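User: Predict the structure for this protein chain, please.
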Amino acid sequence: IASASLPVFSSQALAEDKTEFKRTVMFALENVIFLMLPVAVFCILLSGPVVRVLFQRGIFDEYSTAQTATFLLFSALGLVFFGMARILAAAFHSLKDTRTPVKVALACLLVNALLNVTLMFPLKLAGIALASSLASAVNVTSLYRLLKARVGSFPSGLGDFTKKALLAALVQALVTWGVWQGLGRVPEFLRLVLVCGLGGAAYLACAAAVGLEQARKLASVIMKLRK
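Assistant: Here is the predicted structure, written as structure tokens:
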């Protein structure tokens, strides 16, 4: 999304069309939230089964699975922020400002290091993953505020969009957990496939029901492909 957005950002910045530039940035951020949020939910709820199915064999034992799954879980908390940071950095680059994202990244690197020292002792490996997620959240918040100061206030609606996406993600989480528990006798790999499919469908249906345009368009494409 960031790569596809950069040429659009650049053309609008070159034309000094701040209104469309800000709308495009918001649209790209909404798309990242819409796509990354359900992935984060799956990684958080199913971190253990995912790692076990993919890696647990040979010398990669149960302890290795537990450690890796914990790292995946806490890393997943920052997935949306990781994606949003790429969008905001691309927006600065289109304004021919490469210094601001670098300065913010360096500051967040320091934040990450401090959080690592603080969290790695009580949480061990999970603390390192959580530190990266929190530093990414700081990165996004800083870039957003600096970009807002640079181009002016963004169109309202990102907060409402996020709330609706979170509601859909909650429904997805309930369906995912319920189906996973209900398929206890099914082989784990097949359970993962079924749960991801049903959970994703629940997220898409709920997102469309609450009015997210991305979900409606995606549902429309899926229906056309089925026909």
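The chain has a mean pLDDT of 95.
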